[in-house]
Design goal:
CATH topology of the largest domain: Nuclear Transport Factor 2, Chain: A
Distance between the termini: 26 Å
Mean pLDDT: 87
Number of helices: 11
Shape: globular
Number of strands: 6
Order of helices and strands: HHHHHHHHHHEEHEEEE
Strand content: 5-15%
Radius of gyration: 21 Å
Number of domains: 2
Low-confidence stretches: 1-34
Length: 327
């Protein structure tokens, strides 16, 4: 984790949910008492207004809540220290800064992920508690999409996120990523094709929840026939333990292998496990707890062919953004 200049004392802690950032009367009053406080308070108000979008861009680019918050703090520091009188469009300036930092950060993050133990999955986030993450369009937020976007280049990912999640016009995307408008269009087109090649059209949120509920019942009871009906032929099961929690270090591919695995653990895995329905990345998920302690988040993605991916988030470091307040 990088070390940053500390924000104002009353600035909310970066691990707080986005809803904690609404309204900063006390914070602005405190800042105003400092030297140059009026200008800093104005800077804070401007930044606060666009912070959810900055976090939304950073999270979709990096797939990590912690890294996204770290990046947003970096943008705030740059906003404090720049000549703000020269900035005609603060929101555009901040979005551009966040996107370009995210492109660089993603390149570094991918180098680190090459040595990650087992499959690397995006860090889930509670979109129910943080509706700002939904952006203009419900795109590039599902775990399945974030996972597939790992195969895009940083520039493709940036262009895709700006276009599909936030609805930026191509000329503005070109300005943000420092490319021609034609290149911006090509980047988005390639990203769309890559993602379309990797998955069938997904079911709606209600359909995904129905698949997840049916899978849970079948897995808990060891119902072979139902599992075979629910799972697509080419299903893949991913488990992210990060070398911390016990988890499969190789993805399981194909219906037969996944069914055998689910049936093999059904007799003991679910015993004594508390299952809590939560919302993660705009889709239904199951928060699993043992002895009162959450230890995993489980969810699925599905198409008309059935459930095509299982996601088991076992890494405790990545569960913080989906834990309920009372967990």
């Amino acid at each position: 984790m990088r070390t940053h200049q500390k924000p104002p004392a009353d600035w909310p802690h970066p691990r707080q949910p986005l809803r904690a950032w609404r309204g900063h009367e006390a914070s602005e009053t405190s800042v105003a008492r400092e030297p140059g406080g009026d200008r800093l308070a104005d800077a804070l108000a401007t930044f606060d207004a666009v912070r959810p979008r900055l976090f939304g861009i950073a999270y979709r680019m990096l797939g990590s809540v912690a890294d996204a918050e770290d990046l947003v703090q970096d943008v705030w520091i740059r906003w404090q220290n720049c000549d703000r009188d020269e900035v005609r469009e603060p929101a555009a300036f901040l979005a551009t800064t966040a996107t370009r930092l995210a492109i660089n950060a993603l390149t570094s993050a991918r180098a680190r992920r090459e040595t990650y133990i087992g499959p690397w999955l995006p860090e889930p986030v509670d979109t129910g508690a943080n509706p700002e993450l939904a952006a203009e369009h419900d795109e590039a937020i599902e775990l399945a999409v974030l996972f597939l976007m790992e195969k895009l280049t940083p520039m493709e990912r940036a262009a895709y996120v700006l276009r599909e999640a936030f609805g930026y016009p191509y000329d503005r995307i070109a300005e943000i990523i420092d490319a021609s408008e034609q290149n911006a269009r090509q980047l988005v087109s390639r990203a769309r094709k890559h993602l379309a090649d990797e998955r069938r059209a997904p079911v709606e949120a209600s359909g995904q929840r129905a698949f997840l509920e049916a899978f849970l019942v079948a897995a808990q009871s060891g119902d072979l026939a139902t599992l075979e009906t629910l799972l697509a032929d080419n299903i893949v099961s991913y488990s992210d333990g990060g070398g911390i929690a016990q988890a499969a270090r190789i993805a399981l591919v194909g219906r037969d292998r996944v069914v055998k695995f689910v049936l093999a653990v059904s007799e003991w895995f679910w015993e004594g496990i508390d299952v809590r329905w939560v919302e993660a990345n705009d889709r239904s998920a199951l928060l699993l707890s043992a002895f009162g302690e959450p230890f995993a988040l489980f969810t699925v993605s599905a198409s008309e062919d059935g459930i095509d991916r299982l996601f088991w988030m076992m890494n405790p470091v990545k569960l913080g953004a989906v834990l309920p307040v009372d967990a």
